[in-house]
Specification:
With 137 residues, the protein is mostly helical. It contains seven helices and no strands.
Length: 137
């Protein structure tokens, strides 16, 4: 899972730098607020969540319980739940298989972070050194 987190951070960092570069090339002077808003609006390559935790949350939601997560990540869980429900209904898959398909083959619609959290990640040294080819510490 740590390797997936590194890839996720690497992709996030790459998008942040790409947005900053595009703004500079077009002559725009973007503040950090606008820059983080643009990054968060872009699609994310995958969901940054472990299968075991996703299984617990989606199982709760499929039994009719409210999503236990608050904040921007709540939208992520609702999106995952809707995709899992759709796969189960259309293809007759059980919860485990549908969840596995969503986590491995489905693209997240966006990064599920607050703007302040993204900016803190950007300032963090780990964010700048995130490289999927590096071994975990």
């Amino acid at each position: 899972m740590k390797h997936n987190r590194r890839i996720w951070l690497f992709e996030l960092c790459k998008e942040y730098k790409r947005q900053r570069r595009e703004a500079a090339l077009s002559g725009q002077s973007l503040g950090e607020y606008e820059l983080t808003r643009r990054v968060l609006a872009k699609g994310c390559p995958f969901y940054d969540v472990s299968y075991a935790y996703a299984r617990r949350v989606i199982s709760l939601m499929s039994r009719g319980c409210e999503c236990p997560v608050k904040g921007p990540r709540r939208d992520m869980w609702i999106e995952i739940f809707e995709k899992v429900s759709d796969l189960r209904q259309r293809h007759g898959l059980d919860l485990s298989d549908a969840l596995c398909r969503v986590l491995t083959a489905s693209r997240a619609s966006r990064y599920f972070l607050s703007q302040s959290r993204l900016y803190r990640l950007y300032l963090n040294e780990e964010f700048h050194s995130a490289d999927p080819g590096r071994s975990s510490r």
